[in-house]
Structure formats: C-alpha cells, structure tokens
Specification:
With about 170 residues, the chain is of the alpha/beta class. The protein has five helices and six strands. Bound molecules: guanosine-5'-diphosphate and magnesium ion.
C-alpha cells in the first residue's frame, strides 16, 4: 500500500487501554501482519498508522492512533479524543476508567468497541471471556477477543469498527 492509496472515506480510531495490554502489537499485527513478540517496548506519547480496508464497495481509510496508557501520558491523549470517530481496543482492564475518559473527551456519537487481547493465553488471562461479555452487554458495546500473537480476530475487529463507522457516517 502506497502513501497515496485511494480511499473514499477516512476515520480516526484511537487504541486505548492500560499499558501492556497489547495495543501496539495489535496495530503492528493489523498493519504488517507480524507479531512484535519478546521485548516490551513502551509506546511513548502517540503514534499512528493508516490502513485502507474495504467495506461493501467502499474503501475506508482507518487512521489508527496508538496511545500510551500510562497515567502520565493521559494529558497528551485528551486532545486526540476530540476528533476521533472511533475507539477500538478498549481493553477490559480498567474499562470503566477508559469509558469515563471517552465520555468526557470524545465526540458524543463516538463508536466504541471492547477488546480482550491475548486470547492465546487463555489460562493466565487477567480478564475472563464471561466478564468481557458481561461488561460489553452492560454498556451496549460490541466485544471481541483478539490475539496479536496468533492474529486471531485482529483484522475482523478493525473491519467491524470500519463497518460501524461507515454505518454511522
Ligand atoms: P501496549 O502497552 O498496550 O502497547 O502493549 P504492547 O503491544 O507493547 O504489548 C505488551 C506485551 O504483551 C508485549 O510483551 C507483547 O509481546 C505482549 N503481547 C501483546 N499482544 C499479545 C497477544 O495477543 N498474546 C500474547 N501472548 N502476548 C501479547
Ligand atoms: Mg504501546
């Protein structure tokens, strides 16, 4: 994909969640199809990647913003919420704290999707599937379990949010 890849419509999507849940790995998996395993490199500040996906016959450019979840970076993040149309990867850990942030800073009709990552680690997972499903139901948002390591559901999660963004646009 070139820098000038054709698209019909563009949306900005934020990846939000606590540190080390796998936001950067999910983005790398989606963009490059690879797993950034091994060393944990903390994202400093904010970085973004573009990727064009097809929904029906429309080319949708997702401008995906990777954020640092650490408390000390939150003030940096706030400015980026305002013009984001979508928030993917609301990892379940501290989901409510993130939801409060979105409600405070994001657009009113923002699209939210809850993701539980590291589904490949079933046994040692911090948050169980049922908890994720329950939370998502309670707050009326879609829930998906992903793995940046195996790639399971990563593309589907981004496609799902692209679809919803298109639907609401
Ligand atoms: P971030 O702080 O949310 O950006 O988290 P990172 O993407 O840097 O990932 C934190 C750590 O979790 C790294 O050591 C990754 O290799 C690991 N990790 C990320 N996603 C997965 C996953 O789906 N499965 C497994 N097993 N490890 C993962
Ligand atoms: Mg990161």
């Amino acid at each position: 994909a070139s820098i000038n890849e054709y698209y019909d419509i563009a949306f900005k999507v934020m990846l939000l969640g606590d540190s080390a849940v796998g936001k950067t790995c999910i983005l790398v998996r989606f963009k490059d199809g690879a797993f950034l395993g091994g060393n944990f490199i903390a994202t400093v500040g904010i970085d973004f990647r573009n990727k064009v996906v097809s929904v029906d016959n429309l080319k949708i450019k997702l401008q995906i913003w990777d954020t640092a979840g650490q408390e000390r970076f939150r003030s940096v993040t706030h400015a980026y919420y305002r013009d984001a149309q979508g928030n993917l990867c609301f990892f379940i850990l501290h989901f409510l704290a993130w939801l409060t942030e979105i409600h405070e800073y994001a657009q009113k009709n923002v699209v939210i999707m809850l993701l539980g990552n590291k589904s490949d680690m079933a046994a040692e997972r911090v948050v169980k599937t049922e908890e994720g499903e329950k939370l998502a139901k309670e707050y009326g948002v879609p829930f998906m379990e992903t793995s940046a390591k195996t790639g399971v559901n990563v593309e589907l999660a981004f496609l799902a949010i692209a679809k919803e963004l298109k639907h609401r646009a």
